[in-house]
C-alpha cells in the first residue's frame, strides 16, 4: 500500500522537534485533509488552524517542503508530483512567532498593519446618505488587491522580511496600495508615506510573494506603483529612488546603463569615494570594469528620446 | 538543425560581465547556434525604470522586441532580469489591446511597430528545449567528471511563473539537467532558489550582503566546488561582492562562481582563459585545474 510520510515540525512552547506520521495515500486529497486525518486518527495534540476549507478565511497557511501554501487549497497529488517524493515536511509560516506546532501569532502583524491606515479616508464626493459611486474602471483598480485574505503566505516567503523585520509585509503594502488607488480615498499619501518610511525601497524584487500568493495578486506591480508615487510626492532623496532614476536617465542619454557613474548617482560622490574604493579597485584589477570605457549612444537613440518625449507628454495630459 | 536568434545581450554583457559575452559566443559558435545581435537595443530597465515610469518601461521594451521582430527570429537573452523584463512587456502588450495601441503610438515616433511575432527566451531554455540535452551531450569533449556543482537559478528565470512559465518554480530541474549532461555532479543545497539580492544592493546593503554570504556558505558546506548561475546579475552579486559579504561572517564563505555558458564551454573543451574565467573576483582557476582533465 502506498503511503505518505509527513514530517511535521512540533513546538510545545519551549521545545521544538520533528515528528513523523505515516498515512495511507488517497488520490484527490488536500494538505488540510491530511492534517485533520493525522489529528483525528493518530495525534489529538497536533495543533493547526483552519476554518472555511475554501481558500477564503486565510487561516490554514503552512509551509510544505519550504514553500508556503494554503493547506485547504493545495493538492497532495500536485505536491508529490512536483517534489517527486512521498515524504512531505510541514513547518509553520516563516517570519512569524510560533505559538504552538503550526500555529503562528498574528498580533505583531496586525499592529504593523495599522501603520498604513488600512481604511478609507473618504472624499467629499459622497456621503453616508448618498453613497460613493465608482465607475467600473475605478472599481477594477481595487478588485485584485481586495482579494487578499491575509493568509500570511507573502510574509512567510518575503526574502527582505527574513533579514529585516522593519520591512512591511507584502500584504500590508497591498493594503496601502488598495486604499491609495481607491477613487473614494481623499488622502493616498497617508497610506503611502508609512510604507516609504518602512523601507519600501528595500524590496529585493525576488517575486516570492507573487509566486506563492494563492490569490495571484501582483504585489510586484503594487510595490512599483507605491514607489512611483513616492517619487511624484518628491521623495527622491534616498538610494532606492536615486538608483531607479539613474537607470531612467541613463537610457535617455545613451540607451544603456552607465555602470561607472551608477554608484555615484545612487549614493553620492563622497560615499562612493570613501566606501566603494576597495570594491572599485577590485573590479578594475580583474578587468571587470574599465572606468574609461563608457557607453556611447546606441543606434536609434533619437527614436528612444522621442519615445520618452511621447510617453511623458501623454502622461502630462492624462494627469 | 539551424537555430537562429535575435541576441539581446543586456548592459552587463557589455561591461562588468563581458566574460559572458566571450563565453557565449564561443559556445554558440561550437554548437552552431546563430546569434544576431539586435542593432540599437537599449537597457531593459533592469526592474528599476518601472519604479519611475511603468508606461515608459513598457514602451522601451516594446521597442527592443520590435527590433527582434524585424529580424524574424525569437529573442535570446543571457540575463534573467532582461528575460523577465522583455517577457513582462510582451505579455502585457499581447493581452491588453489598449496598451498595444498606446505602445505602437509611442513606437511610431521611432519608426517601429510592435507586432507580437517574436518569442523571448533564455540561453538555458534554448539549451534544454531548442538545442536539446541529447545533442548537447554528444558535443561534450571534456566531460566535467568529478566537478561538484551547486546550481543557483536566480529569481527572474523562474518567478513570477505567470510570466516565465518554463518550468515549475518550486522545484525546477533545467539547470541540474544541463549540469548532468555535461558530466558534472549536482550538489543539492538550501539556497538554490534564493534571491541574490542584486537589485537592492544599494538600498539594502546589509541584508543583501548577508544573503550573499548565506548562499555561498550553504553551497560550500554542501561540498560544492563551484556555484553556477544562468544570470550575470546573480554572478556579479555572488562573485564581485563576495569579499564584502565575507566580512559579515567568521567562517569562510569562499566559493568560485561560474556563468552557465562558461560551464558549458569547459565541457566543450575550451580553456578557462578562452571563457574569460580569469576575469572573476573569486579565482576559479585552481579548482578547475585540479578537477578537470585536459581537453
Ligand atoms: S481553511 Fe480557510 S483558507 Fe484554508
Descriptive account of the structure:
- The complex is a heterodimer of chains A (319) and B (295).
- Chain A is of the alpha+beta class and 319 residues long.
- Chain A has helices at 31-41, 76-83, 107-113, 136-143, 153-157, 159-163, 170-180, 188-197, 208-212, 219-232, 239-253, 262-267, 269-275, 277-285, 301-318, and strands at residues 3-11, 16-24, 61-64, 67-70, 87-91, 98-100, 103-104.
- Chain A starts with a strand and ends with a helix.
- With 295 residues, chain B is of the alpha/beta class.
- Chain B contains 12 helices and 8 strands.
- In chain B, the strands form 2 sheets. In chain B, strands 2-1-3-4 form a 4-stranded parallel β-sheet, sandwiched between helices.
- In chain B, helix 2 crosses helix 11 (260-267), helix 3 packs across helix 5 (97-108) and helix 4 crosses helix 5.
- The radius of gyration of chain B is 19 Å and the shape is globular.
- The structure holds FE2/S2 (inorganic) cluster.
What is the number of E strands of chain B?
8
Number of domains of chain A: 3
Q: Enumerate the spans of chain B where pLDDT stays under 50 for 5 or more consecutive residues.
A: none
In CATH, the homologous superfamily of the largest domain in chain A goes by the name Alpha-helical ferredoxin
Identify the most extensive interface between protein chains.
A-B, 73 and 67 residues
Strand order of the largest sheet of chain B: 2-1-3-4
Portion of residues in beta strands of chain B equals 5-15%
Amino acid at each position: 500500500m502506498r503511503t505518505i510520510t509527513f514530517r511535521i515540525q512540533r513546538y510545545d512552547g519551549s521545545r521544538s522537534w520533528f515528528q513523523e506520521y505515516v498515512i495511507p495515500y488517497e488520490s484527490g486529497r488536500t494538505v488540510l485533509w491530511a492534517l485533520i486525518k493525522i489529528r483525528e486518527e493518530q495525534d489529538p495534540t497536533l495543533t493547526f488552524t483552519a476554518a472555511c476549507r475554501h481558500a477564503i478565511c486565510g487561516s490554514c497557511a503552512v509551509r510544505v517542503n519550504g514553500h508556503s501554501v494554503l493547506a485547504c487549497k493545495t493538492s497532495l497529488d500536485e505536491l508529490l508530483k512536483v517534489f517527486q517524493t512521498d515524504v512531505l515536511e510541514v513547518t509553520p509560516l516563516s517570519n512569524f512567532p510560533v505559538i504552538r506546532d503550526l500555529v503562528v501569532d498574528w498580533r505583531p502583524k496586525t499592529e504593523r498593519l495599522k501603520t498604513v491606515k488600512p481604511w478609507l479616508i473618504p472624499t467629499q464626493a459622497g456621503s453616508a446618505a448618498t453613497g460613493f459611486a465608482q465607475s467600473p474602471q475605478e472599481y477594477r483598480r481595487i478588485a485584485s488587491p481586495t482579494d487578499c485574505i491575509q493568509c500570511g503566505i507573502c510574509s512567510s516567503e518575503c526574502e527582505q522580511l527574513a533579514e529585516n523585520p522593519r520591512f512591511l509585509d507584502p500584504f500590508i503594502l497591498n493594503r496601502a496600495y488598495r486604499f491609495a488607488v481607491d477613487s473614494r480615498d481623499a488622502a493616498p499619501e497617508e497610506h503611502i508615506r508609512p510604507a516609504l518610511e518602512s523601507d519600501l525601497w528595500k524590496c529585493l524584487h525576488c517575486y516570492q510573494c507573487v509566486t506563492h500568493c494563492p490569490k495571484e495578486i501582483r504585489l510586484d506591480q503594487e510595490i512599483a506603483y507605491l514607489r512611483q508615487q513616492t517619487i511624484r510626492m518628491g521623495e527622491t532623496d534616498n538610494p532606492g529612488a536615486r538608483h531607479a532614476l539613474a537607470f531612467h536617465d541613463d537610457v535617455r542619454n545613451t540607451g544603456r546603463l552607465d555602470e561607472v557613474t551608477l554608484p555615484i548617482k545612487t549614493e553620492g560622490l563622497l560615499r562612493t569615494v570613501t566606501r566603494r574604493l576597495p570594491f572599485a579597485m577590485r573590479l578594475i584589477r580583474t578587468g571587470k570594469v574599465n572606468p574609461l570605457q563608457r557607453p556611447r549612444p546606441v543606434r536609434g537613440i533619437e527614436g528612444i528620446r522621442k519615445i520618452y518625449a511621447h510617453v511623458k507628454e501623454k502622461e502630462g495630459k492624462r494627469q | 538543425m539551424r537555430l537562429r536568434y535575435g541576441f539581446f545581450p543586456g548592459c552587463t554583457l557589455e561591461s562588468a560581465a563581458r566574460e559572458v559575452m566571450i563565453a557565449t559566443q564561443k559556445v554558440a559558435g561550437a554548437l552552431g547556434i546563430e546569434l544576431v545581435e539586435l542593432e540599437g537595443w537599449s537597457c531593459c530597465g533592469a526592474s528599476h525604470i518601472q519604479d519611475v515610469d511603468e508606461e515608459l518601461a513598457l514602451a522601451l521594451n516594446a521597442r527592443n522586441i520590435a527590433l527582434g521582430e524585424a529580424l524574424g527570429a525569437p529573442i535570446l537573452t543571457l540575463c534573467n532580469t532582461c528575460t523577465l523584463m522583455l517577457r513582462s512587456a510582451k505579455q502585457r502588450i499581447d493581452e491588453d489591446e489598449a496598451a498595444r495601441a498606446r505602445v505602437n503610438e509611442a513606437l511610431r515616433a521611432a519608426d517601429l511597430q510592435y507586432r507580437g511575432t517574436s518569442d523571448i527566451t533564455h540561453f538555458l531554455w534554448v539549451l534544454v528545449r531548442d538545442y536539446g540535452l541529447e545533442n548537447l551531450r554528444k558535443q561534450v569533449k571534456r566531460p566535467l567528471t568529478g566537478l561538484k556543482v551547486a546550481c543557483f537559478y536566480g529569481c527572474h528565470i523562474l518567478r513570477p511563473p505567470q510570466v516565465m512559465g518554463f518550468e515549475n518554480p518550486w522545484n525546477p530541474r533545467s539547470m541540474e539537467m544541463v549540469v548532468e549532461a555535461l558530466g558534472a555532479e549536482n550538489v543539492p543545497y538550501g539556497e538554490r532558489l534564493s534571491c541574490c539580492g542584486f537589485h537592492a544592493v544599494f538600498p539594502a546593503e546589509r541584508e543583501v550582503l548577508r544573503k550573499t554570504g548565506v548562499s555561498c556558505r550553504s553551497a560550500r558546506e554542501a561540498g560544492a566546488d563551484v556555484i553556477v548561475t544562468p544570470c550575470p546579475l546573480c554572478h556579479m552579486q555572488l562573485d564581485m561582492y563576495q569579499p564584502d559579504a565575507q566580512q559579515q561572517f567568521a567562517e569562510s564563505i569562499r566559493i568560485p562562481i561560474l556563468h552557465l555558458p562558461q560551464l558549458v564551454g569547459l565541457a566543450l573543451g575550451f580553456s578557462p582563459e578562452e571563457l574569460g574565467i580569469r576575469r572573476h573576483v573569486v579565482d576559479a582557476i585552481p579548482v578547475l585545474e585540479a578537477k578537470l582533465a585536459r581537453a
